[in-house]
Structure formats: structure tokens, C-alpha cells
Amino acid sequence: MAATNINIRTDSELKVKAQSVLNDLGFDMSTAINVFLSQVVYKQAIPFEISKINTNTKAKNAKLGGWEGKISMSADFNEPMEEFSEYML
Asked: How far, rounded to the nearest angstrom, does the alpha carbon of residue 48 sit from its chain's CA centroid?
């Protein structure tokens, strides 16, 4: 496969921040963009959701898989283990 160049314009601060994150992940910018483009081709779509919805709220609710407000934590965290231990005998 022949290599080709892509020139893009982006905000300089965004570029620096993205490079920092990508470096932490072991990627350079070219590899990250190639991964993105490969996923566009594979999925025949943008490989992530784009919406006007506040993604922080949506992500928080998704973490519990719809169980938000239906789960409560025991005041004594060891209490459930004590109840379970009688079944372990």
C-alpha cells in the first residue's frame, strides 16, 4: 500500500493536549489518526457517538447500566460478606 500525506488544521492547544494523551497511550499522532480512519472504514461510520447531550451525565448513568437510584450501599461494607459466609460452609 502506498503511503500518502494528509494535511489538517487544528487548534495548537488541542494538538499539544492530544499529543500528550496519545504519548501516554504509546501512540503518535499518525498512528492515532490511522486507527481512527481504519475504524471509519470498518464501521462505515464515525466510530464514536456525536451528540448535543451532556456526555458526562450520560456516561454516569451508563456506568450503572440503568440501575441508577436502584442500588444502595450497605452502611457496614462487611455486612454482606458476613451474610454470604454462612453459605460458604
From this structure: 10
